[in-house]
What we know:
Elements: H1 3-7, E1 12-16, E2 19-23, H2 31-38, H3 42-45, H4 52-70, H5 75-79, H6 83-96, H7 98-119
Antiparallel strand pairs: 1-2
Helix pairs in contact: 2-4, 4-6
Amino acid sequence: MNDLEKLIPQAVDLIINGETLAIKPLKVGQMPAFLRAISPVMQHLTRTEIDWLALFGERGDDLLSAIAIAVSKPRQWVDDLAADEAILLAAKVIEVNADFFTRAVMPKLDGLFAQTKNLAPTSGSTPSNT
């Protein structure tokens, strides 16, 4: 891999449902819809090991929508995939966009989680009755 390939993430070819897909880093125009779809899924994706069954059970619709956006396919196309192909495709989309997730999405989510914790009521700060 040369220096340019390290700097600019390359597409990964993947055969899904008999079709060769070039899994590429997200384009700026895909980001708003992708981020809306993937944000509820991020809790699962940040774990050391992804429990794909739990992820699909709890946030499958969000993940499938995010995958469809990332590969520029209709949601119905993704819905019609075999489970193993959908999981492989999801994993590749995440892998190809890992740099984006670690540099852009995760720090923002960490900041949002911190803000949420700061908004939680604290115990022992009730006004006194005098």
